[in-house]
């Protein structure tokens, strides 16, 4: 199969950012034609089950200098966006400060953590950085790349996801956080919470970015289409994962960087309209929203905010803020969560402060604790 490789001069790559610069975007004339109904239920702090998601574009900038692994200073350099200033210092607050500022969320899904699969020290350092003397404790889980043909750059410091569970959630009976056997690039972590009143599974995903770079068989290394092809295959595999839980009576939450701007409302100054990107968008919306045999998902941001614009991806430089941005980090839920009135909030923390050393800002969705659980204590100190 003859493949055209990605132009080396292209400013955005699979390992870097997903978005083209403003001049390569196109405005969509009918962006405002569709009217989306919105719902704005309110929840009190003591009735808030917070699910956060953030593409951190390397976990390093969230680790205090005194807690960083010595290996991180000698490892091969990561791609653009490591999140450090000129002297190697952090451009953002520590991980613990982030958790405190957002009132100790029960669940945090981090994507693109860029930890080598062999680096046990940094994994321990992340969990240490998430904990402290004040406030609740957290447990850290990781899925890191183990694909020897598709995830080998920068000494293995590519992709990778981490899930942080607050101690009261992590200690629930039957709680299990696991990888999936159909992904070897460190993109998916599944957390099962079967002991809740509403059986819930939360899937933290760093979804494949579509490019013309080759995708190789993880078993043989043979070229097997492009990253666009793999992205659409990833959609199918994720849908199968979701439907397997739905068939057993679970409600599902999907959070993460999904590397797709769903509609013209979700890109500024426009969305990507190249043929392959259009195919990716149609495939995503078909499988997770529109198809009779799909997930029938609810986009939490649209459900709460209607046609309001909000963007989770921004450029890495302060002067680029707002010039080329997308809503590609999503929180999607099965319809049963909405039918039970459990979805009560959704946010995009769209500020330079919240972006920190990343090129994405955090997002969250909020479920009603009173609706979804009886087993979780609400007595955690959130002062």
TrEMBL record:
Keywords of this entry: Hydrolase, Magnesium, Manganese, Metal-binding
Endonuclease/exonuclease/phosphatase domain: residues covered: 53-290
Residue ranges, compositional bias (Basic and acidic residues): 29-44
Marked site positions, Interaction with DNA substrate: 360
Spans annotated as Disordered: 1-44, 71-92
Reported cofactor(s): Mg(2+); Mn(2+)
Origin: domain of life: Eukaryota
A cellular-component GO term for this protein: nucleus
Site keyed Important for catalytic activity: positions: 329
Site feature Transition state stabilizer, where: 259
Note on cofactor: Probably binds two magnesium or manganese ions per subunit.
UniProt-listed GO biological process terms: base-excision repair
Keyword Manganese: yes
Binding site for Mg(2+): 55, 112, 257, 259, 359-360
One Pfam family cited in the UniProt record for this chain: Exo_endo_phos
Active-site residue numbers: 206, 257 (proton donor/acceptor), 360 (proton acceptor)
Entry similarity comment: Belongs to the DNA repair enzymes AP/ExoA family.
Protein name (Swiss-Prot/TrEMBL): DNase I-like protein
Organism: Mollisia scopiformis
Source lineage: Eukaryota, Fungi, Dikarya, Ascomycota, Pezizomycotina
């Amino acid at each position: 199969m003859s493949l055209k490789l990605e132009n080396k001069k292209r400013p955005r790559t699979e390992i870097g950012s997903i978005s083209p610069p403003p001049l390569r975007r196109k405005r969509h004339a009918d962006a405002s034609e569709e009217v989306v109904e919105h719902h704005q239920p309110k929840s009190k702090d003591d009735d808030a089950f917070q699910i956060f998601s953030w593409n951190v574009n390397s976990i390093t900038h969230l680790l205090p200098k005194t807690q960083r692994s010595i290996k991180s200073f000698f490892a091969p350099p990561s791609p653009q966006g490591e999140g450090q200033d000129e002297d190697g210092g952090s451009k953002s607050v520590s991980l613990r400060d982030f958790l405190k500022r957002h009132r100790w969320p029960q669940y945090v899904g981090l994507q693109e953590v860029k930890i080598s699969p062999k680096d046990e020290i940094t994994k321990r350092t992340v969990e240490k950085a998430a904990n402290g003397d004040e406030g609740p404790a957290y447990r850290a889980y990781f899925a890191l790349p183990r694909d020897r043909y598709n995830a080998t750059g920068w000494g293995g410091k590519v992709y990778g996801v981490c899930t942080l569970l607050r101690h009261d959630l992590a200690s629930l009976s039957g709680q299990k956080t696991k990888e999936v056997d159909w992904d070897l690039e460190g993109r998916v972590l599944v957390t099962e919470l079967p002991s809740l009143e509403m059986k819930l599974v939360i899937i933290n995903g760093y979804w494949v970015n579509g490019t013309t770079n080759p995708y190789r068989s993880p078993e043989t290394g043979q070229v097997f289409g492009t990253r666009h092809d793999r992205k659409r295959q990833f959609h199918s595999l994720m849908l199968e994962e979701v439907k397997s839980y739905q068939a057993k009576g679970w409600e599902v939450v999907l959070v993460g960087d999904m590397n797709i701007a769903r509609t013209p409302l979700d890109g500024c100054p426009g969305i990507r309209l190249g043929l392959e990107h259009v195919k990716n968008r149609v495939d995503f919306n078909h499988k997770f929203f529109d198809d009779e045999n799909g997930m029938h998902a609810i986009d939490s941001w649209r459900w709460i905010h209607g046609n309001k614009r909000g963007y989770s991806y921004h450029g890495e430089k302060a002067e680029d803020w707002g010039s080329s941005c997308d809503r590609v980090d999503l929180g999607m839920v099965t319809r049963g969560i909405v039918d039970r009135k459990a979805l009560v909030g959704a946010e995009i923390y769209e500020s330079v402060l919240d972006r920190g050393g990343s090129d994405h800002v955090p997002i969250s969705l909020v479920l009603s604790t009173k609706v979804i659980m009886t087993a979780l204590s609400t007595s955690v100190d959130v002062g």
